[in-house]
Amino acid sequence: MTTPALPSARSPERSASSPELPALLPGMLRVDPDDADPARRGRVRRSVRDWVVDTLCFVIAILIGLMTYDSAMQTDPPEIVQLADLVVGALACLSLWWRRRWPVQLAVVVALLAIGVSSAAGAGVVLLFTVAVHRRWAVAAAVAAVNFGTALAFYAVYPDPVLAFRWTVLLSASVVAAVTLWGMLVRSRRQLVLSLRERAYQAEAEAALRVERARHLERERIAREMHDVLAHRISLLSVHAGALEYRPDAPRADVANAAGVIRASAHQALQDLREIIGVLRAPSSDDDPDRPQPTLAQLPALVEESRQAGMRVSVVDQLNADGAEPPPAIARCAYRVVQEALTNVRKHARGTGVCVTLTGGPGGGLAVEVRNRMPVGSDARATTSEIPGTGTGLIGLAERVELAGGMLEHGITRDGDFRVHAWLPWPA
Predict the structure, then answer these.
(1) Are the C-beta atoms of 129 and 8 separated by less than 8 Å?
(2) Residue whose C-alpha is closest to residue 135's, from 94, 99, 184, 64
(3) Which listed CATH number (3.30.565.10, 3.40.50.720, 3.30.70.270, 3.40.718.10) goes with 294-428?
(4) Going by C-beta distance under 8 Å and a sequence separation of 6 or more, which residues neighbour residue 5?
(5) 72 and which of 46, 126, 158, 304 could share a cystine (Cβ 3.0–4.6 Å)?
(6) Strand, coil or helix: 203
């Protein structure tokens, strides 16, 4: 018996029955070639590569079997024994076409037949290699032990006229060990290739998830920006348009003034929307990732716009900045808190007074408080929602503040005021 250079059964990465790698869950790596075995996955059709490999294995098994048969027949057994040897050996070689479905069973049966059938030795070698490739090391070792025992029994039935029995034992052990170790090496390589491929798919999936998460966060940021800007502008438009509706007999100067404010607010709203859409369409850049954002420096202009819309807004600035400016992200977040609070007052408590208070300083944090009286009685009925809203403004504002590392509180106080209070970190 000699060790043939046999290709193995089809590799799991090319097999039609191999697991669909992209469908694997992250963190679950199945690197066992047994998963690609039709005996465990169900019957499948052979590919072109499978036909080529199976044909090659069949031819090699016949060649090894004929070589072993020629050596064994030197003892000149009866012709009926020689004919039976060839017939059984041919059947053993034919059984290789089903080696993927029953590798262990066929390997054991053919190994037992090889005790008296010399031409079945080639099929036994191929089946031993198949078991070593497709089954775990314990099963492969057990089948190898069976093959070694039957090889010793074969040389007892057909003694080698040239080699002594101890050399035939050494030769059998060497061939069985070489075939088994070769199959295990192929199995280990397949496990490594399959593991690397699955990890590559997993890395691609994680990268896709990161990209999707980044897109989701960007959409949230843009949606929050559109809400903050457009809700403020449109609420101003609604207030001025409502004034014209309820005061059709107003002096022409007042009507013209209100119409001018409406036109300016509409123009500004369109400009803001154009800038936001421009951010969507423009390619991402680390140098200029966002459009210019408002900070506390623009807070007086925001308050003045609200006053022009008829709101009574007072500002109490108690910042102990000593010339220091809060970080841009913190200043922008504080501006958005005031903007959202004023927008909500125009929607739900129009006509009430609003007090905006800024306190804190470097090292102690920046506190923003917006307080207004809650309308009661007829005032409450008069201010019920003429301006539609989504009801998520404060929720989005809380998320913005939390992302900045701060805290947001809002609700009705014991005094009957509605209070929005945000604390934002201001490093020293």
Answers:
(1) yes
(2) 184
(3) 3.30.565.10
(4) none
(5) 158
(6) helix
